[in-house]
Amino acid sequence: MTLPFDLRRNPSPRTAADRAAILADPGFGLNFTDHMAVATWSRADGWYDSGIVPYGPFTLDPASAVLHYAQEIFEGLKAYRHADGSVWLFRPEANAARFARSAERLALPQLSTEDFLGSIEALIAADVEWVPTAPEQSLYLRPFMFANEVFLGVRPAQKVTYCCIASPAGAYFSSGVHPVKIWLSTTYARAAPGGTGAAKCGGNYAASLVAQQEAAANGCEQVMFADAAEHKWLEELGGMNVYLINTDNELVTPQLNGSILEGVTRDSILTLAGEHGLTPVERRISIEELLDGLRAGSITEVFACGTAAVVTPIGSLRTPDTEVTVGSGEGGETTAAIRAALLDIQYGRSEDTHGWLRRVV
């Protein structure tokens, strides 16, 4: 049975002037639209009480399970305004599938693909005026689910809240797209074998924050994690997957191993590789191979990717013992070309030959 996401209109929406001021400089994750999608699940009744409601706070009991055992998951995707005024999603079915996998790993109920997409499309329809029109701006969508049962026992919660909120988004990095300096952490691990690394849950990001502080203390903007077992194999950044390009015209990324998030942007770039004369390769990459390859010039470009930042060139890598520049340190031409190709598809500037776009409005 499909959940109904009927609109209960916000009686006090932002004025057109307020909305215009926000859209003129939206930042990232700072402002939110007038409505949100919600639904409730209980073991006894399944999914119910769904709708598009006024954006506002939740009331949580201090004993709500999520506050004690972090049983929650989330997703991130964007709605893009095309030149003709239409609004499109990019591969939302992939986000729905990952949301279901994350729910299974965190012992949460699964929301069907149909209901996941229905909630997002109904929210966009209600708040379509919030979808930016400026270049490279978008409406960032954050579906999430959390345990809302009032109970302190350690077991899967029997009551759960689903919600999707929306936020107009400018550039993820406020200073714009430029090569970033990365701290290679072998002290801290983001996720371990058998853990929740392949799920998109808050605990993985919380685990990365102290390493992010370490990176900042060493003059770096982001942190890159090695594996938890040997501390020698490259995995991913705190919130992005990572790629390298070598002189064999290979586009190489760490293979999925259960502790690396299966990014939608990551998968899309693997598909686009051949269009840029590259052979996509998924395999283990050691930190030693990475640093030695950069020093020898056999690795020419390194970049990170994710929904929020899209593609971000990496200019240098720093460890406690050394710092190695990636190519010229200014970012590579192929990285820029891949980023442009992906954005051109998302914004409708080039043909979607892969069937990735889904029209909403």
Automatic annotation (TrEMBL):
GO molecular function: branched-chain-amino-acid transaminase activity
Pathway connected to this protein: Amino-acid biosynthesis; L-leucine biosynthesis; L-leucine from 3-methyl-2-oxobutanoate: step 4/4; Amino-acid biosynthesis; L-valine biosynthesis; L-valine from pyruvate: step 4/4; Amino-acid biosynthesis; L-isoleucine biosynthesis; L-isoleucine from 2-oxobutanoate: step 4/4
Family stated for the protein in its record: Belongs to the class-IV pyridoxal-phosphate-dependent aminotransferase family.
Enzyme Commission number(s) of this protein: 2.6.1.42
Keywords recorded for this protein, A-Z: Amino-acid biosynthesis, Aminotransferase, Branched-chain amino acid biosynthesis, Pyridoxal phosphate, Transferase
Reactions this protein catalyses: L-leucine + 2-oxoglutarate = 4-methyl-2-oxopentanoate + L-glutamate; L-valine + 2-oxoglutarate = 3-methyl-2-oxobutanoate + L-glutamate; L-isoleucine + 2-oxoglutarate = (S)-3-methyl-2-oxopentanoate + L-glutamate
A Pfam family per the record: Aminotran_4
Keyword Transferase: yes
UniProt xrefs under InterPro entries: Aminotrans_IV, Aminotrans_IV_CS, Aminotransferase-like, B_amino_transII, BCAT-like_C, BCAT-like_N, BCAT_family
SUPFAM superfamilies in the record: D-aminoacid aminotransferase-like PLP-dependent enzymes (SSF56752)
Keyword Cytoplasm in annotation: no
Cofactor(s) named in the record: pyridoxal 5'-phosphate
NCBIfam families associated with the record: ilvE_II (TIGR01123), PRK13357.1 (NF009897)
The protein's name in its UniProt record: Branched-chain-amino-acid aminotransferase
